[in-house]
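Deliverable D4.2, example record:
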Amino acid sequence: MPLKGIKVLEFVGLAPGPLCGKILSDFGASVTRIDRVVENSLDVLQHGKRSMCVDLKEPKGQQLVERLAQKSDVLIEPFRPGVMEKLNLGPEQLCSANPRLIYARLTGFGQTGRLASRAGHDLNYVALSGVLSMLGRKHEKPTAPINLLADFAGGSVICALGICLALLERYRSGQGQIVDSSMVEGAAYVASWLFLSRDLGIWTPHGDRGANMLDGGAYFYDTYETKDGLFMSVAALEPQFFEIIRQKLNLPDDLSQFGEEHQQRGRELLTESFLTKTQAEWSEIFEDLDACVYPVIDWRQAHQHDHNIERNMFQHVGKRWLPRPAPSLSRTPGKAWPKQDNQEQLLNELDLEPDELKQLMHEGILSLPTNHNKAKL
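Output generated by the structure prediction step:
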């Protein structure tokens, strides 16, 4: 696997950090979670990782983490700026002891700046990035994109990219470095094309939300309800695709894709047409046609779609169907590992004498899960 032999320390926080650690784990890294509690039912991304609970307020707990950091390649921490320094576990200390360490800091606003120490969530980060202003229907307020853009795309994935870039650079220099991953900046960077494409004809002169070709402003790029209450996605941007839709839906010849005067009429015609058949019936009609019309698959059935099955896109782990790691590598693909019992290996890496281990656990400085095979899914 691509990251085989890479050792990662993941300080457990909310979802962005755990997904970053999961990406590294899925592609072969050995990830050790350092949590505040022994059994954390809120972290649903811990499968494939090893876990330990350390009292970081105690000097002995800090020394234990420092010992692990000296043997690690990567450290991921999700706390506000200054927290790790107060615990004597900041990059100045740990990177001095291990110059090859890649110290990844995943936060909402970054390590510097007026807002660096402030609290926030995905919606706030996307709002500040400028991306939220683009999301939503015309004449409606901006729409919250769940917590996908900042937490995961701009946070987890961009941070994992930064770690991999730092690992690659380390092969040349032999030195680690600090990865300052801000979710505000990550969300904006993921949306680079949206910022750079404003002179293209797909945007209105003022770029108003919900009035453009790709954000619901065009009737031929939208979703439509079917007879059985499900939905179809229509993305017929090119005229040859739209012409197929015109034929299959029996749309009038004078209906055009473009022009403000056609938008309301086109939306009404497509709405009426799609309500005449079920999603399965429409899927069959467009099955072998390049019209850019596909069913909106419910997330609970995505693993049952024939294309996804053929691509082996989902893997059954525990009680859930999980997406397999992407992208797919021809020689060294990733794998969504189930949580395994590797407590003995972790204990060996701690390099503690039996009496020392017993004392740390007796004092409550170190705690280990009692059952590493128990799935948190």
